[in-house]
Amino acid sequence: MSKLARWLSPVIGALAVAVTSLPSYAADTFNWKMVTTWPPNFPIFQTGVVRFAKDVETMSNGRIKIQVFAGGELVPPLQTFDAVSQGTIELGHGAAYYWAGKVPAAQFMSAVPFGMTAKGMNAWFYNGDGLKLWQEAYAPFNVVPFPGGNTGVQMGGWFNKKIESVQDLQGLKMRIPGLGGKVIAKAGGTPVLLAGGEIYTALERKTIDATEWVGPFHDERLGLYRAAQYYYYPGWHEPGTVLEVIVNKKAWDSLPPDLQKIVESAASSLNVTMYAEFEASNNKALRELKEKYKVNVLPFPPEVLKELRRLTKEVLTEESAKDPLFKKVYDSFTAFQADNDAWTTVSDDAYSEASKE
Amino acid sequence: MSKLARWLSPVIGALAVAVTSLPSYAADTFNWKMVTTWPPNFPIFQTGVVRFAKDVETMSNGRIKIQVFAGGELVPPLQTFDAVSQGTIELGHGAAYYWAGKVPAAQFMSAVPFGMTAKGMNAWFYNGDGLKLWQEAYAPFNVVPFPGGNTGVQMGGWFNKKIESVQDLQGLKMRIPGLGGKVIAKAGGTPVLLAGGEIYTALERKTIDATEWVGPFHDERLGLYRAAQYYYYPGWHEPGTVLEVIVNKKAWDSLPPDLQKIVESAASSLNVTMYAEFEASNNKALRELKEKYKVNVLPFPPEVLKELRRLTKEVLTEESAKDPLFKKVYDSFTAFQADNDAWTTVSDDAYSEASKE
Prior knowledge:
homodimer; alpha/beta
């Protein structure tokens, strides 16, 4: 053995050990893009996605780098699902009801009128059939979904007249998308579709009579209290909208098990921390709206809610008749909700009543 | 250059590149132990901890290996905190109120009578002062805490007589630990401390008149429906008990940033998935208790709950006078809860009432 070889021998030995003890994929890095349905810097929504991307990068020690783009920065907001489906983009964040045109059943994975709140949704996803059905619904599109946030119960919306009976919904022009809009149409109103940026002006100029948006925090930021007098609760149409992290199937399959688990864990973590941020922000904003802006915060009359619930069942039954997967998911959702409602009655509901002054 | 050196040269070059492109700590592995306050295989609690350990190992690709021990397997359940504090054990899982003797303020980090439910607790932890105060409370013990699970609202307990008025609490011998026990004592009852394994026999032999345990799922497994006739709700004394992942400070500091984030993310993930499993399991078990075992599920009378709430304030005020940190945490908790209650009234509570038949 030459002198050099003798000198190198232990070094090579050590390097060989170090290298063989590392898994073969350790040096692979993934430079991924993530697009969302949210405006740039949209608080809680988009800022939460940025936190998710940073968490994944930190946990993977830079082996996954995620460049985050808000809606419109790379693809239009409502093309998020398509971009991830086609694989031009690896990751997306949005809400499943945006893809109702493609996957009607997806609406159950975000929000359905008179459906379950966050705690029931998570129980259905993680410990019922929810996530399995969601994966089934997205599989034909090569998209892998994870629950990745929850808005909590939303508000019923801003109205420029009082809603005192079912008759007051007749002729009401309200900005309300999706299934909620179908219910309003059945009640004799006119659902209007408007992007977030158009709502304030339409309401202020009385092009519309009412609008729903999110909850106190986001509604305050949009200044809706200056455009309409009455702020109604509860958000019967969106009782806890689930947000989603979606991954292109091929991109997902290309990850080794450690990185898959990192993405999954970061999504679960986002699921709980984003919901917490909504709650904390809405807590404060509701107080401000009442104290600072003297907003009239009013409950929908029970009679109105009862009628909206009845009409919701009609809408969901009609949609079920059109699409077998919708029906399959509706059946699972409804059965789970029945047990969840019974438990909530003796737990959260009874407790909440007991604990307040 | 010798022949051997020439042959080795590109190999060494490649190895050098591979090694320098990896962070210096990549080869470090951490063989950690984790002890818990739970019995072996205790469903949801202990099984969740095992899932956490597996997730951390998967995400770190084996760089953190965690050997999980149930209560008593390595150290007695209630010495979990001490073992982690001393650093003989790196990780623990339990509930903060078990350490009330050492850290009275810790009770706010698990459950206080008439306190916040899971959603409020998470909002206070992640987006209020909750987690900061928790870290402050554990810092003198070299323990780093993370929220790592939630039981949801518990049940009020099993009673062998009906509770129809405040007078029925007089002389009641009830297994109920912690602050709840202090409240029962103020109401004229006698709180009794019993480990989980002793409860059934004590109740069945009428050594005690009543007991609280967890929720429908765990209560059914313990067979409590065979030992007492009346099952009361809500669990005013434990409205959403937070479970904790605790890490020895020195062990925590020894982790590189990627592994720290992996542990933190796995804890947040456990926080949401364990709560979901409680909900899903309680949903089913409540139905079974009612349908299969014909259990009388009864609400505490409003008058009784009102009195327990009044007595809780007395207890918390007394405890505040004894310990400045308790007072500091109580003040933060109370202020946060006030806003959270107001928001819950127009969101979850109003929604829940509207959505049920």
